[in-house]
Specification:
Blueprint lengths: L10 E8 L4 E8 L5 H9 L18 E5 L5 E7 L6 H19 L9 H18 L4
Parallel strand pairs: 2-4
Antiparallel strand pairs: 1-2, 3-4
Helix pairs in contact: 2-3
Length: about 140
Amino acid sequence: MENTNNNTKYFKYVKLKIPIFNIKVDLYVDKDENLLNVQNYFDSIGFKNYPPLNSDGKSDYDAYTTYTDNNDVLILVFNEEATTKTKVLVHEAKHAVNVIFRWCGIELDLYNDEVECYLLEYITDLLINNTQNNE
């Protein structure tokens, strides 16, 4: 696990890769339940591709999946509590699968979904191993 930022007291950042599809993944785990630390960091670097805050200035999400404007880095953001919920990790992993398939020009196939299932399993495993098992 590679932690490559100086904001570790506010959030954890891990760079990952999905080898077969050659996809770079940035994983953020925010210590703020409203994901405000990561959002402030994104604002500071000019990245705006994240869900808007609600009228209270808070996030309505425990997690979300997004990507860079030039479609070269998949970004997954979770609050710390959400990483303890397997259903949230799987939910975001499925969004990630759909993004990767779209980027690679692969259509979902309801009759032959083995590649989709293996990719979902792989991403879910990456998320579990980099959020639940490590500090």
